[in-house]
Amino acid sequence: MVLKFTLRMPNCGSWNGRWSGDERSHTVCKTFRRKADIEKYEKLDKHYFVHDFGDGWRASVRVDIVTAAEAQKARKNSAGFAGYDWLIKNILSGKMKGMKIRD
What we know:
By secondary structure, the chain is an alpha+beta fold. The chain has helices at 35-41, 68-77, 85-93, and strands at 2-11, 27-31, 47-52, 58-66, 99-100. It has a five-stranded antiparallel β-sheet, with helices on both faces. A hairpin with a 5-residue loop joins strand 3 and strand 4 (58-66). The longest helix is centred in the C-terminal third of the chain and has 10 residues, at 68-77. 14% of the residues are buried.
């Protein structure tokens, strides 16, 4: 199973209200092969996680289960996670609570 994490900054406290990374894709794909990991993390599919920095900035991370081909394309087009990899660690450890995305 491959989880794709997509970073956005929907609320920005910058002078122009935009994040400098807005025009690039910021994704990380993680592959899980162990049955225990798959059972633990498959519930994160189609969830949205938000971190409020308290200074006008807010990060959001969307998590989706993707195919290997989709993951390869996402990795190729990604500009990295802009130093916010710790958000993924917090999501996987259960420190951040997400909301299910409605279809």
